[in-house]
Amino acid sequence: MSMEKSATKSNQNLCFPRRRGQIKMKILKSMVKSAVGLASMRSQSGRGGSGSGSGSSTPSTATPSGYDSDRKLNFTNKIYNFAIDFNTIGQRGLHDQKEKMKILQILRRKLSSSQIRSTVTPSLSLAFFYRQLHSSSNPASFGVAFDIDGVLLRGSNPIGGAPRALKRFYDDYGTLKVPYVFLTNGGGVPESKRAKELGSLLDVNILPLQVIQGHSPFKQLMRRFENELIVAVGKGEPAEVMSEYGFKNVLSIDEYASCFDNIDPLAQYKKWTDKLDGNQSSKSKHTALSNDPCSQRVAAVFVVSDSVDWSRDIQVLCDILRTGGLPGKEIAHQPPLFFANDDLAYQALFPSERLGMGAFRIAVESVFNAIHPAALKYTSYGKPNPSVFKNAETVLMHVLQSCHTNHQVDGRKQFFKTLYMIGDNPSVDIKGARQAGSPWFSILTRTGVFKGKENHDDFPADLVVDTVEEAVDYILSKECIS
Ligand code: G3P
Ligand code: MG
């Protein structure tokens, strides 16, 4: 069941008038006819040209010199020109996917009944025509940003028909036809690894470029802290994430905490930690670093993903932040602190929402402010910050360019007529898309944080649907793509 906000963007004018399509179909049919004629000419010349019926395809021995090779070249050129003409029609504006499918059906029928496929070179095969049609037709004038938790996945489980919905953005050959990105506040692993994980969970091919995580903007801070000691906090592989961004002197909070005896007075009660393994890997990393990190000043702290051990992390963060980056020493100026997002809650496997990084930030801030004379200073990234949506627009343009390699895509940002944000969290996804303004269009699903019947009161979406599959149905029919 979907509910559209009043006066949402109309879908009229997005489809081409039928009449124009019919004219193109006429032209195309006659082109197909001549291609088929060329094909039969080629097949006849192939039979006659060999002269011996031996099946040999070596022109120098089986055919009169110059005759067949000229004829073959001529034929190849004609077929090639046919392909170019076919493309030209595509470039003039065959936006309507139904129309394209009709054309492809005719080509398939006609070409398979001829001997074209067996006689022309592979680059001029049906697949060539098909790919050319897709790659050179006008690029999509819309893009889609998918939130992950609560829209596509709950924990590691796909939800809301997510794999089926994403498949509709690819053609029969698995080539991306609609530019889309994952715009999540989550993270904890490098984008390349997340792309692989998502690909296997959702059963589609995903480029690392398509994955924008909460911590992705940390890359921009690399130059500032490139060679400084930084501490990376959170589940997964926070230090690997930062190293991949180019930071050269990074320790995870596990590694950093293990430098200091008794920094966590509760460690002995934490039966789940494998102390031996942890210490061994940390020690080898410490010796690998040029200076002993325990005596080095921490220049900044990055909360990359959700903290696993709040009590230890709050303690160690307060130690670092109150002492200018030298735990156990005198109070000094606070080093910069960065959070990948400020989500109070998110939807995981448990029926009700779980506390997110925003909740952890409140905990750190409350404790810090209670024990320190100056208030905590920090910067939070992630949705709903408008910069995240601006960046997503740029990334979508790059994704569009990657699916239209031989088409000159207009680099201007206004190129997209509509950008759809599909999210489950009104105060994060919908608020963000609303603040970003045109061309963003917000779609709220009921599979995650939002479970209401009507629209959200404070951050109403342009459209409310039950699932991501319903959202994709809506987008494709609005954009006239079957
Ligand atoms: O930690 C995950 C979370 O805060 C939200 O992820 O995909 O809903 O933006 P997402
Ligand atoms: Mg979400």
pLDDT under 50 segments (min length 5)? 3-27, 34-98, 108-136
What separation lies between the terminal Cα atoms?
20 Å
Strand content: 5-15%
Cα shape: elongated
* Chain-averaged pLDDT: 77
Structural class: alpha/beta
Secondary structure tally, helices = 17
Tell me the radius of gyration. Answer: 29 Å
Bound molecules: SN-glycerol-3-phosphate, magnesium ion
Helix content: 40-55%
Per DSSP E runs of 2 or more residues, the count of β-strands stands at: 16
The strands making up the biggest β-sheet line up spatially as: 1-16-15-14-2-5-6
The biggest sheet amounts to: 7 strands, mixed
Could you write a compact summary of the structure shown?
By secondary structure, this protein is an alpha/beta fold.
Main attributes of the structure:
single chain, 482 residues, alpha/beta, 7-stranded mixed β-sheet, 5-stranded parallel β-sheet, binds SN-glycerol-3-phosphate, binds magnesium ion, Hydrolase
